[in-house]
Write a structure and sequence with these properties.
Layout (H helix, E strand, L loop, with lengths): L32 H15 L7 E4 L6 H15 L3 E7 L6 H13 L10 H15 L2 E7 L2 H5 L3 H9 L1 H4 L5 E7 L10 H7 L2 E4 L5 H15 L7 H12 L4 H17 L7 H21 L3 H13 L1 E3 H12 L3 H13 L3 E5 L9 E5 L3 H9 L1
Parallel strand pairs: 1-4, 1-5, 2-3, 3-4
Antiparallel strand pairs: 6-8, 7-8
Helix pairs in contact: 1-2, 3-4, 6-8, 9-10, 9-11, 10-11, 10-12, 11-12, 12-16, 13-14, 13-15, 13-16
The chain binds adenosine-5'-triphosphate.
Length: about 375
């Protein structure tokens, strides 16, 4: 190793570390042209003072749904002073009051009075302001499934989508963001009859697309020659397992840290492999965080046992949640479809075939994610 290969203590491999942060909104946003166009088309009426079309963005984690909305929101706000856009993270704001408070803050720059004020009052203030200022409101409900889990989806959607019936002149459009269309099972017919969204699918990225996107991040995030093309390919192969781009961006960042820790000017394959141990959890934890409470509890029971008979599992689940067999059976099937568990029949049971249920991931990883 020549002296030149060694990083001085105040030197860094990162040209612009912000490019590798999870909330960074890149200029280069390829392979989502059709989705961006569909969004633009749906929101276009708002630019002319009309109610936009509602949208439903559906796709697995890390496929660019939130970023696509944020890019379009930025553009809309820059060009259309008559349009207000608000993104609500329903994992954080999961009640009707929390959602309307988020909107209120965006409109007025301050929090609404929070003690003793009814939702209706704040909603009225918001809608009256929209009507009198002739502004169109577009609300993106990210991780909309959380409103279903908490039992608030119908009232939130109903208030927003039918506001114009009670307050003539109100113009509100809703963009729902979910991982799977079945996440919206809870919406009732009163909501569905007005939601009628434009469906915009976000499929998983393929390896060439992942490579293209990560190359761009590398170019702006690192100094030249910090990472070789071969190692980028290695990172792509890791990302491809789940299609979650977040894992790729996190891998780049952690690999860079690992190389810096060794005082090296370049990233090695060991740096990447070591980084993957942590980065892979990002996808698993994000996916697990999207499960409903009973789904998480069942997964935890399975992970704690490693392997368990269906009958035994049901007993433990019923004790813990008081939920009946139909719910149990439905959740087992969903966890199986989502690839968290194997639930195969053995044929070895005393009374015929028995189902043995086990996690597909390291139990320790699953439990770590559930603790977060
Ligand atoms: N086409 C793209 N070009 C550049 N970067 C992208 C692209 N798609 C996604 N990303 C990046 O991948 C990361 C994950 O994207 P994003 O959060 O938008 O995904 P998501 O589909 O909303 O995920 P989740 O469902 O987990 O919220 C972000 O850092 C984003 O910048």
């Amino acid at each position: 190793m020549t002296g030149n290969d060694i990083l001085l203590w105040d030197e860094t491999l990162f040209k612009d570390p912000s490019v590798l942060e999870p909330d960074y909104l890149p200029d280069y946003f390829p392979h989502r042209e059709s989705q961006l166009n569909a969004l633009k088309f749906a929101l276009k009426p708002a630019l002319r003072g009309m109610r936009p079309l509602n949208c439903l963005l559906v796709g697995p984690p890390g496929t660019g749904k939130t970023s696509a909305v944020m890019k379009i929101f930025r553009e809309v706000e820059a060009h259309a002073p008559g349009v207000v856009t608000v993104k609500v993270n329903c994992q954080i704001d999961s009640t009707r009051f929390a959602v309307i408070s988020r909107i209120y803050r965006k409109l007025f720059g301050i929090s609404p009075p929070n003690s003793g004020v009814a939702f209706r009052k704040i909603f009225e203030t918001v809608v009256n302001f929209l009507v009198s200022s002739e502004k169109v409101l577009i609300v993106a409900l990210d991780d909309l499934n959380y409103l279903c889990y908490e039992g608030h989806a119908n009232e939130v959607m109903y208030s927003l989508l039918r506001a114009h019936e009670q307050y003539p002149g109100a113009k509100i459009g809703v963009i729902g963001i979910v991982n799977d269309a079945s996440d919206l099972y809870c919406l009732d017919s009163r909501v569905n009859s007005v939601f009628l969204p434009e469906d915009i699918p976000f499929p998983r990225y393929g390896s060439a697309e992942i490579l293209d996107i990560l190359k761009d991040r590398t170019k702006y995030g690192f100094y030249p020659k910090v990472i070789s093309d071969e190692l980028l390919e290695l990172i792509v192969s890791y990302v491809e397992r789940t299609g979650d781009l977040r894992v790729g961006i996190d891998l780049l960042k952690r690999s860079g840290f690992n190389a810096e820790r060794r005082g090296s000017r370049t990233i090695s394959s060991e740096d990447v492999e070591k980084a993957y141990e942590a980065s892979k959890l990002l996808h698993l934890c994000r996916s697990i965080s999207l499960l409903s409470d009973p789904e998480k509890r069942l997964l935890e029971l399975i992970a704690r046992k490693g392997e368990i008979q269906a009958g035994e599992l049901y007993k433990a689940f019923r004790e813990l949640t008081q939920l009946g067999y139909t719910r149990f059976y439905g959740i087992v099937n969903r966890l199986q479809v989502l690839n968290y568990i194997d639930a195969d029949f053995t044929g070895k049971g005393q009374r015929g075939r028995t189902r043995i249920i086990k996690t597909k991931f390291e139990a320790e990883d699953v439990l770590n994610c559930l603790e977060k």
